Amino acid sequence: GAHNDLGALLAVDLLDEAIELLDHQVRFRLAGTAKAQVAVRLAVIQLLDKQPAKALDTIRRTRQTRLPEDLTYKRLIMEARALAELSDFEQGLELITDLKDPEANLLRADIYWAAQDWPMAASSLDKVLGDSVPPPDKPLDVAVQGRVMRAAIAYALAGQQEGLDKLRGRYDAQMAASPYADSFDVISRSSA
After folding, report:
1. Can you say whether the dihedral through the CA atoms of 158, 166, 190, 114 is positive or negative?
2. Are 84 and 114 in contact (CB under 8 A)?
3. Which of 21, 116, 118, 184 could form a cystine bridge with 157, CB 3.0-4.6 A?
C-alpha cells in the first residue's frame, strides 16, 4: 500500500516528491484525524529535508480539537522540534514543559544542546539516562553510548566536574568497552 510507496520514494531520495504527494493529501483530500496524522508524516519529511519553517506551518495549519491523545502528543513534539531547528529554543521548550516522558526529555536535551546551554543540556541528558545504573558487565547500546558521551561533553563545557565524576562512576566500565573509550576517558577525567 501507500506505506511501501512512501518508503520507496524516500529510498531513492525523492523527498520533494514525497512532500508534494503528502502536501496534496493534507490540503485537498483529507479531513479530521487522518489529516492531522498525515500532517505529522509530512512534517517529519520536511524536517528531514531541512525545511523546519514548512514543517512548523504544516503542523500549525492542521491543528484541531479532539484528536486522540497520542496524536496530539506527536504533533506537539514535531512542533517543538521544528521550532528548535528554527533556533526558537524558548518557545520549543515551552511547548513541551508539561511532558515528562523519555521522548520529551530527549527533545529537551537536544534543544538545550542546540542552544548551547550546557548545564541544562547536561542535567536533561542525565534525566534521559535515568537513575537506573546498568549492570557493569552489560554493554551499553549505541544510542546510550552517544548520550553518555554528550552528557560528558555538556558537563565538561559547563565546568561541572561533580557531574563528570558521577557519570564516570556510573558508566566507566561500559564506556571503556565502547568505541568512545579514549574520548570518554579524556573528557571525564578530573582536571584536579
Report:
1. negative
2. yes
3. 118
**Confidence band of 175 (pLDDT split at 50, 70, 90):** very high
3-class state of residue 134 by DSSP: coil
Q: 87 is written with which cell numbers?
A: 533556533
C-alpha cell at 152: 560528558
Could you give phi then psi for residue 121, rounded to 5 degrees?
Answer: -60, -45
- C-alpha grid cell for residue 136? 557493569
Q: What is the pTM (predicted TM-score) of this model? A: 0.84
Q: Which residues contact 150 (CB under 8 A, 6 or more apart)?
A: 109, 113, 121, 125
Q: How far apart are CA 129 and CA 142, in angstroms?
A: 13
Strand intervals (E) in the chain:
none
Distance of CA 17 to CAs 14, 66, 120, 175, Å?
Answer: 5, 31, 39, 42
Measured CA to CA in angstroms, residue 19 lies from 6, 11, 57, 76 at distances of 10, 14, 13, 20
State the Cα–Cα distance between residues 39 and 45, nearest whole angstrom. 10
Listing DSSP states for 42-82 in one string gives HHHHHHHTT-HHHHHHHHHTT--SS--HHHHHHHHHHHHHH
**pLDDT band for position 25 (cuts 50, 70, 90):** very high
Q: How far is CA 74 from the centre of its chain?
A: 12
CA 28 – CA 88 distance, rounded (Å): 30
